Amino acid sequence: MGLLLDEKQFQFCNQITKELVNAGISENQIEVLGFKNKINKNETFNFPVFSYKSISINGHFNDKNFIDFIAKPFDLLINFYELERAPLMMVSVSSKAEFKVGFGSVDKRINNFIIDTETNDYKVFLNELFKYLKILNKL
Fold this sequence. Notes:
The chain is α/β, with parallel strands linked by helices and 139 residues long. The protein has a single domain (2-135), classed as Rossmann fold. The protein is built from four helices and six strands. The protein has a six-stranded parallel β-sheet with strand order 3-2-1-4-5-6, with helices on both faces. The longest helix is centred in the C-terminal third of the chain and has 14 residues, at 122-135. The chain is globular, with a radius of gyration of 14 Å.
């Protein structure tokens, strides 16, 4: 399972991961990638993070974590961002994930399934996600 986060949602990463684990997903099956506009030299993160510098002017990806993330054939990619930001959308579109889930505020063509809530309500988002994954026999 892949989890793609915008910097505004980094604060929810641990809680989302805990909720996923509580739902029966092994922690080592969850891969996280975050996007931050600008990464300062002294900043550290608990998961891989990319920035605009990870994308060349030609639109090519030049960050190993970034390239590895989009190449993985995840069963599920959670696009946990609510603003249409080009780098996040590039990852979502380029991802080899089988099933993509995201928010209604983002271009509807990116995700296979849309949950219309806000990122602050991550518990509601995850409850709805698991409810519908069971209905769709994806879980």
